[in-house]
Every structure is written in C-alpha cells, then in structure tokens.
Amino acid sequence: MKSRQITTLLLLAITLVAIFTFFLLTGESNLTSVDTNPERTEPLSDKEQALAFLARGRAMIASARTKGTNLTRDEIQDLGDFCLGCGSYLWDEATKDPEMKAIKAETLSLWTQAKAILKPDITYTPARRFPTRKEIVGEVCFSPDGKHALGATKSLIDYWNLETGTIHRTLKGHIGGITTVTISPDGKFALSGGYDKNLIYWNLQTGQLVRHLTQNTHKIGAATISPDGNFALSGCNNTVKYWNLTTGKCLHSLTGHTRFIRAVAISADGNYALSGSEDDTVKYWNLRTGECIRTLTGHTKSIYTVAISPDGKTALSGGQSQPLRYWDLTTGKCVRTIDAHHYDTIMVAFGPNDQYAMSACDSDKMKYWNLKTGQCIHTINITECPGFYSTISCAALSADGKHILTGSYKVMQLWSLAPRTGQ
Asked: How many CA atoms lie within 13 A of 79 on its CB side?
C-alpha cells in the first residue's frame, strides 16, 4: 500500500513539474483549467483543476519575476476568483484531504504574491474617519472645494470641516429620514429632502433655514442644485420638479415616470437633466421647455443613481443588482453595459475627465472605470483597510476626482485617490 502511494505521489510531482516548465517557457499568463493529457475525454476532477490552477499560478509569477515585470490586474483576476470563489465544496475537501489542504494554502499564498507585484493604475489611502452618531450615515456630499461635507443621519444634517474633522454646525428642520443632500456651487447653501415630504434650502454660513420648497405631496427621493446655483431639481414620487431657488416657485412639473424617482442630475450647462426611477427607466429632459427628449431603456430593475458627463454628451446609470449602463445622450443608445457590482449600485460619478468614472455598491467595494474600454482600473475594497467599516450606505466623489467620501454605521470615511499620470 505504501509503495503504491509513493508511486502515485511521484507521478503527481512529475506531472506538476512538466506543467510548470511548459508554461514558464511559453510565457502563458491567463489562468484556465488545463488537462495534461490531450487525448483525455473525461472532465477534470476538482483536485486536478486545483492542481492545474496552482501550476499556472506558479508559472505566471515565476515568469514575471524572471522578466522583472509587473503583473496586470487581468493576469491575476482568474487566480483571485479561483481562490475566493472556486466553491465551498472544493475548500471543504481541504479539511478531509491533506493534499487539498496543501493546495489551498499554496494557492492563497500565490494570490498574495501576485497582488504584491501587481502594478495598479490608481492607488488609494484611507485618509480619515469621522465618528458620527450611533446611526447609519444615509447621505453624504462634498462642498465644491472638497474641504467641507454634509453627512445626514436620520433627521439631522452635520456640516463638517474635513480638514479639522470637526462639525461646523448641525442643520435641524426635518422630522423624518433624509434621502438626499447637496451643496450649491458657491458652497454657501445646501438643499435636502426626505421622507417627511420636505425639500429645504439652507444657508450653510448661518445654519438657518432659508425656505421650504412646498407643493410636495410625497416623500422626496432625490434633489440637486443647478451649476449656476439659481435652480434645483427634485424627484417627488413619480414627478420631477424644477425650482427657482430665489423665489421658491416650481417652474416645471415633469411627468412621465410611473414609479418613485430615486435619482436626478443636471448637465454642466444647466439646460438638461436626467432622472432615474423605480420604473426601470432613465428620462432625459429639456429643463427650459419641460419636455422629455427621450427615455433611456434597458435596465430591468430600479435605478438608484444617474450622472451626466462634464461635456454633457454621455451619461451613467446604475441601480438594483444590475450592470451599469453608459449612454450616448445624443442618440439615446447604450454604448456599453458594465458588470460592476454583485450588489446594488448606490453611486456613479464622472471624474473631471469624461473618460473615467467611479461607482460604489452597498457592500464593501468602490470601482474606478475606464469608460472607453469598460475596464475596471482599480477596486477599492474597504475590508482590506483595518479599522474601516465594511458596509457602504452612501458615497460621493469630490469635484476634482481626488477624494471619495463614504457613509456607514456611526462613521464617515474619507478616501484619497492618486490616479496615474494622465488620468
């Protein structure tokens, strides 16, 4: 019996050496399942697949080190996926089979080594934590200069100095949960809406309520201020309302959605807008005439977030457990779908450059995208940062694209991004 086991182990070792040598010489880097016998017809067993992945991982890392090059994210993606999601059954076998236990340990070790020689296109640093009340921070937004922020918990809104980590003042006026906050382009005013049906315009310098924007018969799902600071857009039930902030009057009630509106955005020139609804559609509006230019269709579930590019030509939308959609607003066609997150997408935002964007989901990940290629340039996994909470309830990207602010239970977290030159 012992001699048979020794013979089996020797044959297995020879096979692994052969696989390793072959892929080291060929420079192959994409991880796929491998069958060492080309005439074999039956599928590989779980253990054989694990061994094949392991051999490819060894070859890939050895080749990169020999050549003195960095691995790309694509080159280690499959290895990472295998380590994390090959299936509970396979790794459960490691508790019963010593050989599988060794395979698991070495595979995870290789993945760690691969990440160590990965050259990212963007780096991130968890810059600061801002402890808040013992509640979920449901909404956040930056001031235009990125030095201040709003963070909403239940019915209160805190106005933060991000440089000192202190609260300037707390805005009190809502009597229910707050669903949206935004700061005016000059940084002097703010707009908030909530379940109490109130849409409130604030003076941030004094903390005083400037006015209630009335005529709202349902809870407010979203709101934003125009780039010139004179107008606002809000979603109230299934109607988009366009407001004059100086007079407090509603200029247009834009109808067409059939369900609750969760997201709105205004173009940089202030003439156009987007709205996203639980009716699975995005609508593109002319704010001067109040007309719907077109309806963007393709989503199959509720839409939670929308954004218009700085040049006004394209848009992004995301929502409940579905891909992001990248739109050409001139034609209304979907240029690209992006499988961004396994969970609900709660934020999309363009960077200063129309080519790049950020997205965040209500789990633990934010992603930085090249929209021209649909490639994920970098993933920010906040569980990799000790002391940082792992569930994101809301997120915002600063105007200069250099920082992200996230809200979680009892805390806001500020992340500093360092894009590669040219991005």
From this structure: 31
